[in-house]
Amino acid sequence: xxxxxxxxxxxxYMRNMELKNAVSALSALAHDAxxxxxxxxxxxxxxxxxxxxxxxxxxxxxxxxSANLNILSHAGLVENRREGRSVIYTARYEHMTELxxxxxxxxxxxxPEICAPLANVALQSRCGATGNA
Length: 133
Known about the structure:
The protein is mainly alpha-helical. It contains 6 helices and 3 strands.
């Protein structure tokens, strides 16, 4: 057991998990093709887009797209569902919002002139039931 001033072990562990999730998401987005896929899915709304259509729009081979979608999925940024023979991908808006909130959490030493515009971005990212911003 530590002193009263130390951070409890379970709190440090939870913060590390938040950090690990943010690093995973940011790493997944730090690639031009994956960022393009993610932005396309964000714009598509909750309907999502079939994998074949994403490949066609971006002009990428299906196996390359599959690898990129797998990385985005493991990072918690996209999810998929099967509709007939198609696999439809959608952005996970809740996770995107959590990432934005994580990025500006405890921002700017509480300086409202810096934090307010960033907070507005996070608030505007909260999509309605249709998934459209």
